[in-house]
Structure to design on (473 residues):
């Protein structure tokens, strides 16, 4: 305890950490806004910094690379070989034909009959179906009908579909009479799948597509009938498919070997030039870059929130005012009778707290034999505070205690004589308004003039304090 200022517990002002934390949390919107602003600023800085690095790198690379014609041609050939190798890898990975088992190749052969035509139109109709089956029309039709099942490149789908017409003397030189014209022809469609189920599903999809195309061709080439005669599933050992798959894999192996040999033989300048021809960055570098940028932005967001906390803490420390009941008890030895919330929304709670403070004041006055009390405030009170102070004064008066009210006593010196006449003082403090300096000035005056301070009552703002006092009360 300070000997000169006995009303103070310590020379250094204590801080109510719970109140400080509550004040920071109550202004969370400002924290989020400041965090977003910091993250946006970080994004702008990253964009400018990365753009500058790219420009500097490109400029330095262009200035430093000087290749002869033969060296440049080697770089171009290697880049072309790498592109072809990538396409071949993609083909081997996605092609149905390359994934089929050549020793047990699953196929479905369907036989269609085209009849009920005028002889002169039969050739045109047959060629129309063949064109539809072999030139991409059927693949687009089945993908449009069920893209979920046939979600693959049209070229991979087209290579497992074969169609042909029976080769015999159906089409022969005639004298132009109707009786010499053929009346029907047969059309074969064979599909291959990775397994029996896929081959059968593809055969059914082609049948549906041909039925829809029949109506289109009927309008263009004349009336005719397309009939599915039979459809058979077969399993065969296809040596040509085996040879094709082996050749493709050997080609890929050769590409990789030649590419590695070419890169190993490159000079530093050629390696740098070859790296510039690649349009996309390496996957690992791209992931690392994205991770770094995301981490940088998150750190900036967290930094904005931290800055908000620092600002709130500085304002709290520099305010120099009483901020909570806990802080008042922490700093002063003055008897404390309680706190009252000034929030209009908590008017019921305010009346309860006022009654609680009144009961404690009555009991203290009776025990100490006090008959006259001056209710003093170091600040100017608003309407709600005056109303509350009048309720306290009226309650004390009903108990036979004479009261006197005084506001802004640190500035209005004329009230000090009346305060001295009362003999006892009840200090009214206001959170956020009553400064510690004001309390010290009042206490020095009261101590110098022999005026006894019976205690203090605190008027509090809305927020965390009101809630906690409601719980305690």
């Amino acid at each position: 305890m300070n000997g000169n200022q006995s009303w103070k517990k310590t020379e250094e002002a204590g801080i109510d950490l719970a109140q400080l934390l509550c004040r920071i949390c109550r202004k969370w919107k400002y924290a989020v806004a400041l965090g977003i602003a910091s993250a946006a600023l970080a994004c702008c800085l990253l964009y400018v910094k990365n753009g500058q690095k790219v420009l500097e790198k490109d400029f330095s690379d262009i200035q430093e690379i000087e290749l002869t014609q033969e060296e440049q041609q080697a770089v171009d050939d290697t880049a072309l070989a790498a592109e072809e190798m990538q396409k071949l890898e993609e083909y081997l990975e996605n092609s149905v034909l390359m994934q089929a088992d050549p020793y047990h190749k699953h196929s479905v052969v369907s036989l269609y009959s085209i009849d009920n035509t005028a002889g002169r139109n039969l050739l045109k109709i047959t060629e129309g179906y063949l064109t539809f089956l072999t030139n991409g029309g059927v693949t687009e039709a089945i993908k449009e009908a069920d893209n979920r099942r046939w979600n693959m490149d049209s070229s991979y789908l087209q290579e497992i579909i074969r169609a042909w017409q029976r080769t015999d003397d159906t089409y022969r030189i005639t004298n132009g009479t109707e009786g010499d014209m053929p009346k029907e022809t047969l059309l074969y469609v064979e599909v291959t799948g990775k397994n029996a189920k896929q081959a059968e599903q593809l055969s059914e999809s082609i049948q549906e597509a041909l039925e829809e195309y029949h109506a289109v061709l009927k309008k263009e080439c004349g009336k005719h009938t397309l009939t599915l005669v039979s459809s058979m599933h077969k399993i065969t050992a296809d040596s040509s498919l085996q040879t094709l798959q082996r050749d493709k894999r050997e080609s890929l192996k050769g590409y990789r070997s030649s590419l590695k040999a070419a890169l190993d033989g490159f000079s530093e300048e050629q390696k740098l030039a070859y790296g510039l021809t690649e349009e996309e960055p390496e996957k690992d570098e791209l992931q690392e870059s994205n991770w770094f940028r995301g981490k940088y932005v998150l750190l900036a967001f967290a930094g904005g929130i931290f800055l908000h906390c620092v600002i709130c803490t500085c304002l709290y420390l520099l305010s120099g005012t009483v901020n909570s009941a806990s802080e008042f008890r922490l700093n002063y030895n003055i008897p404390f009778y309680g706190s009252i919330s000034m929030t209009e929304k908590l008017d019921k709670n305010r009346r309860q707290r006022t009654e609680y403070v009144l009961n404690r004041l009555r009991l203290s006055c009776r025990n100490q034999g006090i008959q006259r009390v001056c209710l003093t405030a170091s600040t100017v009170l608003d309407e709600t505070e005056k109303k509350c102070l009048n309720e306290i004064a009226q309650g004390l008066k009903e108990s036979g205690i004479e009261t006197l009210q005084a506001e802004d006593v640190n500035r209005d010196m004329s009230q000090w004589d009346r305060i001295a006449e009362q003999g006892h003082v009840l200090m009214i403090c206001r959170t956020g308004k009553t400064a510690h300096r004001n309390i010290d000035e009042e206490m020095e005056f009261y101590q110098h003039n022999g005026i006894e301070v019976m205690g203090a009552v605190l008027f509090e703002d809305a927020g965390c304090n009101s809630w906690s006092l409601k719980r305690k009360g």
